[in-house]
Amino acid sequence: MAKLNTLNPPSSLNKGINWRALYKLTKPKVVALIVLTAVVGACLATSGLPPWQALLVGNLGIGLMAAGAAAFNHYIDSEADAAMARTHKRPLPTGAIANWQALLWASLLSVVGFAMLYWWVNPLTAWLTAASLVGYAVIYTLWLKRATPQNIVIGGLAGAMPPLLGWTAVNNAISAEPLLLVMLIFTWTPPHFWALAIARREDYAKVNIPMLPVTHGVGFTKKLIVLYSLLLFAVAWLPFLVGMSGVLYLVLSCALNLRFMHLAWRLYKGDNQRDAMRLFAFSIVYLMLLFVALLADHWLFALL
Ligand code: HEM
Ligand SMILES: CC(C)=CCC/C(C)=C/CC/C(C)=C/COP(=O)(O)OP(=O)(O)O
């Protein structure tokens, strides 16, 4: 839990607002991908162009709340972050900003995002996004992360929600199609994260965070990565099988999944550090292109 410590000296209180540090607290690249998946969810919710208010204000609200969740995560994890090689240069461990500033920033982003969704989009989307924020910032970061090696499997549900949030921003109702997209991200999360966790195993062991490669070993984690990659391939067929997406999506998603499985297999057989980071990097490109493929396919069929 965050406390003022020697690595985060009170001198940071006197420096004014460090906008760069506040920006970094929002995990901007993660939030960008989250918003992309929400935009695609919003676009798939209707056969034409979604209403501008749902599209623009909806995704802005979702993005602000995701950024708020990320800032809460930095605040709650600042001591563990200070001890890990990957994270020790983050704004809180270096003292670039004070803990109270991070907490205020996280609260501000979350409240503004929630208000936008509640009043200008719809209460359903506001409450579902709030549930995702609590799922990530409180349930995952504060509890699950240190409680069980299944932390990221269960916590992954929060990060998987954005396509549904985009959809409800447009339709104000939950239906089966966006839940398939949630399932896609939910299945993608374990291989996305465990690849990185293999490469950064020492870090997690040092701070006693029970990530799977620490508790069950690298060999077991690699096996699960291969199994989840197979499951991901199967789940990626579903939008086509239920008639939600067409052949363009099917071809592109198969190509992406073959590459994913190839890299997962290479990690299984090969070098922990290099092959793990390769799979981790590709997992991000994969999710981005998969959602672009869903959108391209949707619009192609809308035009034909
Ligand atoms: C519980 C679920 C998840 C866990 C545990 C997780 C974990 C991580 C970790 C530890 C990193 C490295 C961050 C760093 O080095 O600063 C990362 C990077 C990343 N993750 Fe995830 N992730 C999850 C879900 C997601 C979701 C849902 C998305 C987007 C839809 C996502 C997109 C990204 C991106 C784009 C990066 C690269 C960030 C950068 O290079 O700055 N992740 N993830
Ligand atoms: C829509 C909404 C409000 C959703 C919030 C979802 C959200 C921001 C998910 C981010 C997922 C992520 C980067 C997890 C890593 O946390 P970590 O603490 O394991 O990784 P770290 O050590 O890099 O901080």
TrEMBL record:
Q: Which reaction does it catalyse?
A: heme b + (2E,6E)-farnesyl diphosphate + H2O = Fe(II)-heme o + diphosphate
InterPro entries reported for this sequence: Protohaem_IX_farnesylTrfase, UbiA_prenyltransferase, UbiA_sf
List the subcellular locations.
Answer: Cell membrane
The record ties this protein, via HAMAP family, to: CyoE_CtaB
Q: Which family does it belong to?
A: Belongs to the UbiA prenyltransferase family. Protoheme IX farnesyltransferase subfamily.
Functional description taken from the UniProt entry: Converts heme B (protoheme IX) to heme O by substitution of the vinyl group on carbon 2 of heme B porphyrin ring with a hydroxyethyl farnesyl side group.
Q: What is this protein called?
A: Protoheme IX farnesyltransferase
